[in-house]
Amino acid sequence: MPTKEELKNIISEMIRESQKIKKITEVVTSANFDMNSRKITEDIVEFIKEYIEGFKSSAIKTEINAAGINFEIPFSPLEMQIIIDNIYDNAIKNGANLINLKFKGESKNKIKISFMDNGKKVKKNI
Question: What is the pLDDT of residue 31?
Answer without folding.
Answer: 45
